[in-house]
Write a structure and sequence with these properties.
alpha+beta; 4-stranded antiparallel sheet; two-stranded antiparallel sheet; 18 helices; elongated
Length: 434
């Protein structure tokens, strides 16, 4: 089977032809590498939140307030001067790749620490710690804060750190979680909630799936899951499910969007696999049931992954509810296996993860909506990068059914990181780097 694909946009427009899938790998593609690096070095600072904390004494997380301690600092109005001061503190050399940019009239701040600060450390947490220290120092200097009030500024910015490792209550937010919350080695890039991804891509389901797929598959590379034959397996999944290779996802959604169901998307997936001779009839049973064999197992998995995403967009798009995504992933692959006699996406791991996912997201347990899940979660971690792109797409199509809405969990993440082109339109960025 050929490992050359054409990359199409989220609108079905051809972007790049004859692309070797290995040029899509996080180890080679410059746009993917920029997305990963910018994810590690970027944070959003809620300047309006800092101003409110200082003026009310509410800081360090929920239900925490120091009565009688107020500082009336015009942080938002002075965002220009503060951003200049923060940049001088954050940068390593004059003219390096440090970025400090006020947004939303000074209510928010995008800070990207210089690459040198990341390459000289072992973790990505420098983006949060360096920014927190710089913002603290800039405010202290700008308002000539004395030693008695400086602790208030520190608490308003660092939250309840070090009492809480994760800086609870801090107005500084990154896409990545702290390493202590990872399920295991290499899970950092998989520890990004689906709501964040949907917010960053402005609820564009195709781009949300693409950005999520880039994070998920880059995580698989990092944890050693894409070595040898597994590299092709994962890259085909990234290409077809995440980056709309050969316009497969777009065409199947368009074909089934108006009147289709999960079952009709299965028909679209299988018929295309037969047409491309990815699968052929192995034997026919006495009842006439046809058992298929995969002539290219990795390519069959890629088609199953693309079909799962297409079914998600058709079904969740029809209901405008992210809650459908677990059942869609489960039963698309369950019926696909019964239709062909072949394993579903990810050799059953996606289907298995979906069973637990439905229970934990909104069934008897009901711990939270799909949007707060990620590939690092104890339930969804078992799929090797193919589940969460579907969840990100479903969340993008949701019309308010979630217990934890995008607006409540990811507003500042979307407002700030959505200004970065590669994050907002990852398919276009990856194709442009080829």
């Amino acid at each position: 089977m050929s490992d050359t694909v054409d990359i199409y946009s989220d609108r079905g427009k051809l972007l790049e032809s004859n692309v070797n899938i290995r040029d899509l790998a996080p180890t080679k593609n410059k746009a993917v590498q920029k997305i990963i690096m910018d994810t590690k070095r970027s944070v959003a600072v809620n300047l309006a939140g800092i101003e409110k904390s200082l003026s009310t004494g509410k800081m360090g997380g929920a239900a925490k307030q120091i009565l009688g301690r107020k500082l009336e600092y015009k942080v938002v109005a002075d965002s220009g001067a503060l951003s200049d001061a923060i940049k001088k503190l954050v940068q390593v050399d004059e003219g390096d790749d440090t970025v400090v940019k006020p947004l939303a009239g000074g209510k928010q701040l995008l800070v990207q620490i210089p690459t040198a600060r990341l390459t000289s450390g072992a973790e990505s947490t420098a983006s949060m710690t360096v920014t927190a220290a710089a913002v603290t120092q800039a405010i202290l200097d700008t308002y000539n804060t004395d030693m008695y009030d400086s602790m208030m500024v520190k608490a308003a910015i660092w939250g309840s750190y070090p009492q809480t490792v994760g800086m609870a209550g801090s107005p500084i937010k990154g896409i990545l979680d702290i390493p202590q919350n990872n399920e295991g080695l290499g899970y950092s890039l998989r520890n990004i909630t689906s709501n964040h991804v949907a917010a960053i891509t402005k609820r564009n389901a195709m781009n949300a799936a693409a950005l999520s797929s880039i994070y998920e598959q880059s995580g698989i590379f990092e944890m050693g899951g894409a070595i040898g034959e597994f590299e092709r397996h994962q890259l085909l999944g990234l290409a077809y499910q995440g980056l709309n290779a050969n316009n497969l996802v777009y065409e199947m959604v368009k074909e089934n969007g108006k009147t289709g169901t999960i079952g009709s998307v299965i028909e679209s997936t299988v018929s295309r696999a037969i047409e491309k001779k990815i699968i052929t009839v192995d034997k026919t049973g006495p009842s006439g049931y046809k058992f298929y064999k995969a002539n290219d197992v990795a390519m069959w998995n890629a088609y199953a992954a693309a079909g799962t995403l297409a079914a998600t967009m058709v079904n969740c798009g029809a209901s405008r509810a992210a809650q459908d995504v677990a059942a869609t992933m489960l039963y698309f692959n369950d019926i696909l296996e019964k239709e062909t006699g072949l394993p579903g996406c990810d050799y059953g791991k996606l289907q298995g993860a979906s069973v637990g996912f439905s229970f934990f997201s909104h069934s008897i347990y009901g711990g939270g909506g799909p949007g707060i899940f990620n590939g690092n979660h104890v339930v969804t971690r078992h799929s090797r990068g193919f589940a969460i792109p579907c969840v990100a797409a479903a969340v993008s199509l949701d019309a308010g059914t979630q217990m934890f809405t995008i607006e409540s969990t990811s507003a500042i993440i979307g407002d700030v990181f959505g200004t970065i082109d590669e994050f907002r339109e990852p398919i276009k960025a990856v194709a442009g780097a080829l």
